[in-house]
Design goal:
It is a single chain. The chain is α+β, with helices and mostly antiparallel strands and 182 residues long. The chain has 4 helices and 7 strands. It has 2 domains: 30 residues; 143 residues, 3-Layer(aba) Sandwich (Cytidine Deaminase, domain 2). Strand 4 and strand 5 form a beta hairpin.
């Protein structure tokens, strides 16, 4: 085969490859989020049950005079210490802070020697004081993701559901698959 034919054939192979790459980029994609659900009383890890109960206690101390939605968070550090937080609202909205960020920021400020977090439990209480589903807001997910990336290993997230059930995510990345990365 002459060199001109080889050059033309190579050109068309490149064009076909680029077209295939373009089509591949435009294909529909699917995202699957893996998590587990347990009855609170039947959770396999007693430490996780205790962490959820600590989040329930933290929700009792929330300051939520505007939303009447009390959220508690309990963060277990690598050394077993638990740091709790709750939502703190303010009339100068959005000056308040969510329970999850309160717990993480408190742990980071108070325990600079332990900057490794294993699990975070989140519980909500409605205005009637009944436990209800709670899940991190977008801002909290991004903050949690940055802490997870900084520590270099997953932080499990336990979200209380109605009916004494708990949804367990293996990492913050499961909650925020397309996070900011620096």
């Amino acid at each position: 085969m002459g060199s001109e034919k080889k050059r033309v054939l190579r050109f068309w192979k490149i064009c076909l490859y680029l077209q295939w790459e373009k089509e591949k980029r435009n294909m529909d994609k699917e995202l699957v989020i893996k998590y587990q659900e347990f009855d609170l009383a039947a959770m396999p890890d007693a430490g996780d049950r205790e962490l959820v109960q600590m989040a329930v206690g933290a929700a009792d101390g929330a300051y939520a005079p505007y939303s009447h939605f009390h959220v508690g968070a309990a963060l277990r550090l690598a050394d077993g210490t638990v740091v709790c937080g709750n939502n703190q609202e303010n009339g100068a909205y959005p000056s308040g802070l969510c329970a999850e960020r309160t717990a993480v920021f408190a742990a980071s400020a108070q325990r600079r020697d332990v900057q490794s977090y294993e699990a975070l439990a989140i519980v909500g209480k409605n205005q009637d004081g009944r436990l209800c589903e709670a899940s991190p807001c977008g801002a909290c997910r991004q903050v949690l993701m940055e802490y997870e990336q900084r520590q270099g290993h997953p932080m499990r997230v336990l979200c209380y559901l109605s009916g004494d059930r708990v949804r367990v995510f293996p990492s913050v990345a499961s909650l925020l698959p397309f996070s900011f990365e620096f």
